[in-house]
Batch of 2 targets.
Target 1
Amino acid sequence: MPIASAELRATCAAIQRVFPGAFAQVIEEGGHAADVLVHSAHDLALVLPNHAQVPAIIHCGELRLRTAGTPEELVAAQPARTIGVLSGRVAVVSGAVSGLGLGVARGLHAAGACVLFTDVDVAELAAVEATLADPVRVATAVVDVTREDSVIAGFDAALRRFGRVDLIACCAGVAPAYDLVDFPLDKFRLANEINLTGYFLYGREAARIMKAQGHGGSMVLLSSKSGLEPSKANTAYNATKAGELHMARGWALELGRDGIRVNCIAPGNVFEGSKIWNPDYIAKAAQKKGITPAEVIPFYVGLTALNREIKPQDIADAAVFLASDQARCITGQVLVVDAGQVWTR
Ligand SMILES: NC(=O)c1ccc[n+]([C@@H]2O[C@H](COP(=O)([O-])OP(=O)(O)OC[C@H]3O[C@@H](n4cnc5c(N)ncnc54)[C@H](O)[C@@H]3O)[C@@H](O)[C@H]2O)c1
């Protein structure tokens, strides 16, 4: 007994009327309206089957209102209810196919958020989408963070696909390493464009959308321990990572009255999956320290108080916390995730 699209849209409207905090969306599959997907109101999952005049099943912390099936069949099919701290939220992540950005985007998704993975790497975006295989809560968009039109188009894609934006994580970054006297101007400018202009464009677009939506939001900017304590032969990285911290503090001040929180994470050295730590970069680090490339990771791990290698998952856990309501009174902060290496805050 298929329900026509107009009826699905009427269902959405009815849900929004009864639960103003919810967000209901018609899902199109194969050109047909197939389901209504409800994000946001956790208590809705408990009461909706009694309120709405349609059968419902619970799916990954969201409700999908089925277009067919008897209530008995649907009750029998009802899976275990899994709700993460970010269920019903929509996140946009930059630099989301490699290293820390991929870890953060996956972490937000695992915590229940709908996530738009954005990056310039078209092939890796397709690979990530295929690996995660969750067409309900995962989408991708090719975005160059240095281009205003590209960033605006990326946020438009998030709004078209998920209907809102609640969270952003800025992760796209580069770290050209040269001694000051040899530092090429074009590399310095590129680092500024990606690390500073890119974060600025994401923050500005998100702020515009979040202010218009009127229900707050959370921004997490990946800075670095190098934003707090400089590293050698890293002029552009030191400057831009410090700039991100202060840009975030200013945004926290400016956007607080709109319920928008802005925080930074300052990771220590994270090797797993990182293209910054490519063989060339490791060779330069080895040269700087007078060790072999194979000794680089143990060397940096040995600098930490915990003597522990930091993984993308450690950064993802911090990002999920800062994005979640558990951090509701935290804004303008820098969370240092470095296993104990720098002591400046
Ligand atoms: N790896 C570390 O040790 C470490 C430590 C502290 C902070 N960080 C920060 O974490 C972030 C990610 O670092 P990573 O080591 O995972 O790097 P990475 O090189 O593995 O990932 C960076 C991603 O950004 C994307 N990107 C580059 N230019 C872009 C552009 N113009 N538009 C859109 N996307 C673009 C790349 O395609 C890539 O997917 C950076 O901001 C970095 O400063 C990394």
Target 2
Amino acid sequence: MHIIKFLLALLLLVAALNERAEASVPGHSNDTHQQAKFSELGDLLTVEQAQGRFAWLSKCYDGLLVELWERMYESTDVVKKEEKLRQLKALWLSDTALAAGKAQYVTFANTDFTNPYQWYAGTSANEACTIMPPEYEPIALKTTVLPRSYCENRSYDHEWEWISEVTVDDFTHQSEKHAHSIVSGKVLVLRANQASKVTIKPGNKEPEFPSYVAARVWLDWNHNGQFESSEMVYRSASSGVFRFLLDVPATVPEGLTLMRVATDAGGGSDNACTRIHYGEVEDYLVTVR
Ligand SMILES: [Ca+2]
Ligand SMILES: [Ca+2]
């Protein structure tokens, strides 16, 4: 049963990767029917973090890695634990994969592919071991896509205010309330030297009395893994829907980068890394063509 589940997860992952490949075909846009496949699990790791994930699991959950080895090889041969770990590492973190920036790592969640406790496995051997929620399982073998890691940001409180929808031209993402989420199932494609129409719909626990929230958007145009002050592309405050035109620079380096959207009824900060109070932070994978 476990093997089937894991294989299913792998298939879903392959589907997600295909979807990403499709999304990068210029002019190919069928967002509506693909919307259901959006993943909000986040857990997008860089190559270095994927290596750290393996080291952390080897330290904290080596039994689980052994179990994964047994599922993948369907073997009951007497093989030493160290050899099993070595083989897994060779499979997921081969020199070829590392050189291509495509290391693989295991991500964990509930069996329904949700992460209700917002629990993530470690990404460095130096991190202390934490206890995985008992109902969690390894649900997918992911391939690294982001070459850089970004500062974390999340809200202290997302009970009353959150982000319920973000649209960019034909791209729409509706979502529930979270402290932070990474929309990792699909890449948002922007056109160089054009203006894109963006809307941000805040969610409210009492929609008849919408809160006055500050909204900000940052885009790492220069792909350096940081949101410089010049990369804050929008800032406003309102109790309604935010609408603006996003001017995309004429030249942006190739590859994936990150767009961060934050709403905060506590006013927020111009610093994309400063933790927000009442609202949500959503990160989107973006490529400019
Ligand atoms: Ca949301
Ligand atoms: Ca930057």
